[in-house]
Amino acid sequence: DEAVQGILFSAFEHANQKCSACSRVFVHRLVFPRLRERLVRATKSLPVGSAADPGTLVDPLIESEARERVLAYAQKARKEGEVLVDRLDVGSANPQQVGPLVVELKLANLSRSVIAQEEIFGPILALIPFEDEAEMLEQVNGTEYALTAGVFSRSPVTVARMVRVIRAGNIYVNRKITGARVGIEPFGGFQLSGTGPKAGSPEYLFAFVRRRSEGLISNVTFSSLSQKGDESPSVTSEDGFPRLAEKVALWPAGVRQRRDVLRRCIGLLRGRSRSTLLGAITSSYPVSPSEAERIADDMAVVATAVLSAYGEIAEPEATLPVPGQRNYTSWETPRGRGFAIAGDDTPASRLAGMLFGPLLAGNGLTVAVASVLQPLAGALVRYLRQSGVPDTVIVMAPQGSAEAGVSLADAMFHFAVTDLGLAETQRVYERLGVAHVAEGQRWVKALINMRDGPQPGEPGFLRLFALPKTIAIRTLRHGVDLELPLLYLGY
Questions:
Q1: pTM across the whole model
Q2: How far, in Å, CA of 200 to CA of 184, rounded?
Q3: Nearest CA among 362, 5, 313, 330 for reference residue 166
Q4: Which of 22, 249, 394, 418 has the fewest CB atoms within 10 Å, i.e. the most exposed one?
Q5: How far apart are CA 219 and CA 279, in angstroms?
Q6: Which residue positions in the chain have pLDDT lower than 70?
């Protein structure tokens, strides 16, 4: 009963004209016949009519162009699946009024289905039976969009597993998937549905402020970079498209295991055997041996500060509480493959933070620095690998790639973390904004600028490198909130 009601409101309220509305329902075969029967009967009973009528659930479409688009998708839906309900033509005097259309699709055909892959913004719903959970999840996570998802289950184990593996910005459990409220269910998605921060979350504030702290921001423009202009990429394929992103992979270990590996690296930075690091520092900066010791210590201090904040991504953060629903935001999902690009006056401690932060969050990272920093960056990467970071997780870009017109931004990365002057940062920003759809890009790239926002060791820094999932779990059953403590009465 709860699943049918949740699906109906998620898919057909306001005729599906919501970015968060439901368009696909995956149902295990053991319960599929019963749910299909009840859903079909319920869909046939939905009130379709004027938006001015309080009893209406399925409102008219917003404009005539929307109606034409929905009718075109309906034709494709009838060809791609078995029609279960077809109330599209409700015989209304309003030319923009349409009713629900429900079709059953086969899981094996889903990747080739237009209505299962594209956003319709109309009351068309695909019902998909599945038996193999892995195959189902592959299709769930296989679209360009990843804004909202819903799970109906009585099993806490199943709920926890689905919440962990489904890639969507907002995941609702045992309730409808529309109607996010500010502060309660902070809103925003993955893939082409957004990059964060979530609207209605504390991190959203950073989008409206500029950092002014002295000592942390430099207005220096790096002449060594700006003189290079927009040269060709250092590493390209035959067609000129950079391929460095393909060489790096996510770090599959859990956050606590990643923290332990990075702790070992800090031990190397502090240890007696750091002569290689000290030599790299003096090669990158014109400093004395004693000053090199101090710089190495600063790198270890910053890296330690980053690791000490690991709870930001390891532990869920509660949002505003409401009766009958448990709400929290999880930061366990890494952004993906990224690159760190540093200029010729980037401090060594900041470079350490630019590497430790993304890695602790589980991302894959390509490191590109100005030529003068190549010895230091190379030594730091070797220490990370020696400590246990997989070779595929952190990769050094060829020497000079930072100066080559920041061409890495053209590659198939998910994000960039930069410490550059304004002009060079702007070039990275402009190139990240280009979508390489033909090459398979199905996400929006993000720019994380070290000249703004939280610095390594400050609250919120680690979360720059993670994708937040807002989880809303309905705990109300038969009028009783299962989250409330039980009251035992004595005799």
A1: 0.86
A2: 8
A3: 330
A4: 249
A5: 29
A6: 195-196, 213-244, 400-406, 484-491
